[in-house]
Every structure is written in C-alpha cells, then in structure tokens.
Amino acid sequence: MNSLKANQVIEMFSLKAKTKSQLGLGELLLLGMMAGAFIAIGYLAFVRVAGTVPKSWGSFSTFLGACLFPIGLIAITFLGGELVTGNMMILTFGFLKKQLTLVAVIKNWVLVLLANCLGGALFGLLFGHLVGLTEGDFAAKTIAIATAKLADSPSAMIISGVGCNILVGMAIFLAAMSQDFFGKVIGVWFPIMIFVVCGFQHVVANAFILTAAVLAGGHFSASALVLNILLVFIGNAIGGALGLAVPVYYANRESAVVSTTSPESIKQVIANE
C-alpha cells in the first residue's frame, strides 16, 4: 500500500490525538522543545541564505530560503516531536471523533506552544546569538524580518496565521497519506515552501526569529512581541482547526462509512510511523 485515503488518515490522527493528550508534562516539554528547535533550524537556514543574496535578486532570495525552510517539519515527521501547529489540526480530528474533550485539546495546545517557543528561543540564543549565526552580516536581515512581522496590523497577524496553518496542516496531512520516505518529503516540502514564499506567520518560527532579532540589537517592546505571539497563535489555531481539520473531516465522512480499513490496520500504520 503506497498511500492512505483521506478518511484513513483522519482515523489515524484521531487515535494519535488521544495519545498526544495523555502525554506527561515532562514528555510534552522535551518533545515540544525539540520540535521548536527543528523549526528554528529551518528558519536559520532561510536567514543565512536570504541574508547573503544580492538585493538585485529581489524576491528570488525568499524563494531560495523557502526551499530550505521545510527541513524543520521534515525532521519532525521522521524523528518525532510535538508541534503546536500540527496539533491544532490533529487534536481537532480527535475532538470531532470524540476521542478527547475540548479542555484537553486547549490544554495540549497551550503547553506545547510554551515548549515550542522555549525551544525556538533557546535555539536563537545559543546558535543565533552566542555562535553568531544571526549576528554580524546577518543581523540586518534578522531584524528586518522581525520588524516586518511586528509591523502587521492585529487583524493581518491573525489572517496571516490562518493562511500559514492551513498550509502546515496540509503538509502534515499529505505526508501522513504517503507510506514511503520520498512521498512524505514531497508532501511536506511544497506546502511549507509556499507558506514561506507568501510570508505567512507561524507562531513557533516567530518565537525564534523575534528572539534572534532582539539579541541582534533590534529594539522592540515586550508588549509588541507578546501580542504577536498571541495573535499569530490564534490565527494558526483557526487555520489548523476550522480552516482545514473541520472541512476535511466533513468532506470525508461518507467515504469513512464505506472504508474497508479495520481499526487494527490503522493502528499498525501508526506503529510504523
């Protein structure tokens, strides 16, 4: 079997959602920090590439950086980790399938968000600032990216977050449909590359770039930083849950009725993930 059907992926995610909601605080912290660091790796690669391209290349520098950014979600796909933007879709499927309560969903999102942001911020401190990978010649690019993120209006931050997580959720869903390495990589690559090219805001990626920008000498108020994280989180939640999970769930309910896939086979797929 080379790929799963959409309704099979929904069933798989609903079972995963229950498992995710039962993780202990220590596990959530460790896996969340790891995922935050993985996303930061992709963003750091973006900065290092886009920061060295001549200005005459224009938006092509963004395209080059966007080609490298997906490594973060690819790493999470194969190595593991708890990413809040992915959980916004996955746990919504679990809620719709009555595998967990709304309280459990929100609790997981908040805890994983904090762990992701901590991981991304620490990566920015250690590798961006102390190692100097977002300093020196790259400081101007780092600060410029952060300034652009904070310059958006509150409504634009939310809407940008919605667009971002529709694409992130799409990437995770497409990767889950594939049963081979290259299929999963391609499934992640293009949606993530598109969200970066479009300049959409991702709450975990922002935790890294905003931290790196402050440490590189950017002058931003604490309230502006917190407001951005909060509003983009809300936008990401709307995009992952209402923008993708809910319509995909209802679009595939009929096919789920006629599916011949047994719960045991779905559990076997999860075990092989």
From TrEMBL:
GO cellular component, one term: plasma membrane
Keywords, alphabetical: Membrane, Transmembrane, Transmembrane helix
Keyword Glycoprotein on entry: no
InterPro entries associated with the record: Aquaporin-like (IPR023271), For/NO2_transpt (IPR000292)
Localization per record: Membrane
A molecular-function term among this protein's GO annotations: formate transmembrane transporter activity
Topology within the bilayer: Multi-pass membrane protein
Family annotation (Gene3D superfamilies): Glycerol uptake facilitator protein
Family: Belongs to the FNT transporter (TC 1.A.16) family.
Protein name, entry field: Formate-nitrite transporter
